[in-house]
Design goal:
The chain is an all-alpha fold. The chain contains 1 helix and no strands. The longest helix is centred in the N-terminal third of the chain and has 17 residues. It is flat.
């Protein structure tokens, strides 16, 4: 998991560098965890 989080930090930084003022949100899920498939959508009303 630690390697995945480090990758996400790099990806977020790259996006913020390429797109000034971008709001970047990432979320990593454990592979094979059934709860990860039951997440609600991020775009909520």
């Amino acid at each position: 998991m630690q390697d995945g989080h480090e990758w996400l930090e790099r990806i977020e930084a790259d996006i913020r560098h390429a797109v000034p003022y971008a709001h970047v949100t990432t979320h990593m899920e454990m592979q094979g965890d059934p709860l990860s498939q039951a997440d609600r959508a991020l775009d909520r009303e």
